[in-house]
Amino acid sequence: MSALIERSRLRALAILSLAVFAAYGSSLRSKAFIYDDQDLIADNPFLHEGAAGILPALSQGYWESVYGQDAKVQEYRPVLMLSFLAQTFLTGFSVPAMRLGNILLHLLVCWLLWEILRRKISPEAALAGALIYAVMPVHSEAVELLTGRSEVLSAAFLLSAWLCLEKETAGGLAMGTALYGLAVLTKESSVLFPIFMALNDWVFLRRKPWQERSRASQLALWAATAAALAPRFLALSAPFHGGIPYFHGRLVAGLTMAKFGLEHYLWPSVTGTGLCTDYSRPLIADSNPASSAAWLILLAVASAYALAAWEIARRRSRWAFWLLAPCLFLLPTSHLIIPLDTLGAERFLYLPTLSLAAGWGFLYWKARQAAPRLAFAALICICVVYALLLSQRNRIWASPLNFDRAAISCNPASAPAWDGLGSDLISEGRASQGAAALNRAASLNPNLADPYYNMARLEFSRGETVKAAGLLQEALRRDPQSPDAWILLGLCGERGHKDAAALSDFKTATRIDPGSPLAQFNAGRLCLVLSDFDCTRRHWGNYLRLAPQEPQAAAVRAWLSRLNEGKGIPRAADKRN
C-alpha cells in the first residue's frame, strides 16, 4: 500500500509540475521589477546588505524598511523578507530566479493540496482539484508578483502544518505548530488557522476543540499565535494599522464588500475573466445603506455562510467546511475587522480558492462515477481554458508598462495607475507622453502627491530647478512624509546655491526614513561641503551600513578614512537623484 501511495505521489507531482510550468514557464523571460516589487525588493536597502540584513529584517516592519516609521501601512513579515534575503544571497536580484522561486512554491502548494484532498475526498478528486488549482487565472498576481510570495509561502506553511498536525504525534504537533508560526510571520491573515483547524477537527475527526487530542493542538497553535504576534508590538509603531481607511463606517464596508465579493472575487475566480489589478477609487462605488439591492446582496451572502455554519455545527457537513473554512482567511482583508486602505486584490484569493479546488474535485469525482470519459474530457477542457486565460493574464507582469496599461484598462479613472504609467513612460524616454499621463493622474485625484513628485523629477532632469521645486512643494503639501520628495527638494536647493536649506531638507528625509541610503549619502555629502565633519561621519557611517555594496560606497569609505586621518579630501560633488 505504501509503495502504491508513493507512486501516486510521484505521478501527481509530475502531472502538476507539467501543468504549472506550462502555465507559468514563459514568464521566466521577464527581467523587470513590477509594482511593489521595485520598492520592497529592488530598492530595499536591507536586501543589499547580505548577512547584515538579517537583523533589520527581523527588527523592522515590511514597509518601514523602505518608507520609515511613518509608513502608511504597517506590517511585520520577517520570514518573507528573509526568504528574499536568502535568494539575493544565492541568485542576486535576478527577477527570473525570484519568479522561479514563486513558481516552485506554487507547485509545492498544489502538491500539498493534492495530498490533503486525497485524504479528505478521494484520489480522483485530489488530482482534479489540485490540477485546476494549479492553473486558475486568479492566481496570476500571487505567483507572478514577486511580493505575492507572501500569499504562496504562507499557504505552503499552513498546508504543511495541517498535514503535520493530523499525524497526532508529538513530533507532528511540534512541527505543525512551528510551521504555523512561520506562516504568521509571513502573512498576517494566517492567524485564523487555529479556527480553521478547530473546524477540521470537528468535521473530519468528529471531536470538539476542547477534547483531549484537539485541545493540545489548539493550545499550541494559540500559544504560537501570541508568540508570532508579540514582535509586532516591538517592531511597529502601529501594530495593526492598514493605512488610511477605505470606508467610512463598517455598515458601508459590509454592504459594499458583499457586492464586491460576488462580482470581483467569486465570478473571476470561477470563470477566469474580469480580473483587475487596481481596485482604487472610484472604480467601485460605495453601496448606499438606503439601497434595498445592497441589503439583498448582503443578506444572500450572509445567509450562505450562515447556512454553512449551521451545517457544520449540526451535521458536520464536509461541503460546508470547504465552503466556509478557506474563506476565513479573507476576513482580515474584508474591512470588517481592521480598516484597510485598499478595497481588495486578486492575490488575497490564493487561500480562499481552496474552496473552489475542493468543489471542482468533488464534482469531477461524482461525474467520473457516472460517465468517466465525459468527466475526463470536461476536466481537460477546463484546465486548457484556464491555462490559456492564465497565460494571457501573465503577460501583464512582463513589464511595468504592461502592468500600468492593464490597470488603466480595468480602472481608467485610477489616478495611481495613470501616475505609474507616467513615471514608467518617462523612464522609457517618452517624456511628453509621461507628462501627459502624470497630468491626467493629478486631474483625477488632486490630493495625490505622487504625480507632482514625478513631474518634479522630470523638470529637474531638464534643468528646470525652479519648476521642480514648486512641484515638490505641491507634493509635500499633500504628503509631508515623503522622503524622496525631501531629497529632491534638497538637490534643487543645492542647484540654487542654498546649501543650508538643502541640508535641512536632506536631514528631514533621514528623520522620516533613517533607512534611506540616498538620504544619508546626500546629508553626509552636504555636511562635508559645509565643513561639518561630525555630521559627515554620522550620515556617511549610516550610508555605509545601509548600502555597503553600492558603487559610491568605496569612494565614501576612502573619503571617511582621509577625514579621520586629518587629510584633505576633494569636495564631494555627486548629486544623485
What would you say this structure looks like, in words?
With 577 residues, the protein is mainly alpha-helical. The chain folds into 2 domains: 394 residues, no CATH class; 116 residues, Serine Threonine Protein Phosphatase 5, Tetratricopeptide repeat. A two-stranded antiparallel sheet has the order 1-2. It is globular. The C terminus is likely disordered.
Give a short overview.
The protein is mainly α. Helices cover 68% and strands 1% of the residues.
Provide the succession of SSEs. HHHHEHHHHHHHHEHHHHHHHHHHHHHHH
What is the count of distinct domains? 2
Please report the distance between the alpha carbons of the first and last residues.
65 Å
* Coarse morphology: globular
Strands, count: 2
Itemize the secondary structure elements and their pairings.
Layout: H1 2-24, H2 36-42, H3 54-59, H4 64-67, E1 73-74, H5 78-91, H6 95-120, H7 123-134, H8 140-144, H9 149-165, H10 170-184, H11 193-204, H12 212-235, E2 241-242, H13 250-271, H14 292-315, H15 318-324, H16 354-370, H17 372-394, H18 400-410, H19 415-427, H20 431-444, H21 450-461, H22 465-478, H23 483-495, H24 499-512, H25 517-529, H26 533-546, H27 551-564
Antiparallel strand pairs: 1-2
What structural keywords apply?
mainly alpha, Serine Threonine Protein Phosphatase 5, Tetratricopeptide repeat, 2 domains, two-stranded antiparallel ribbon, globular
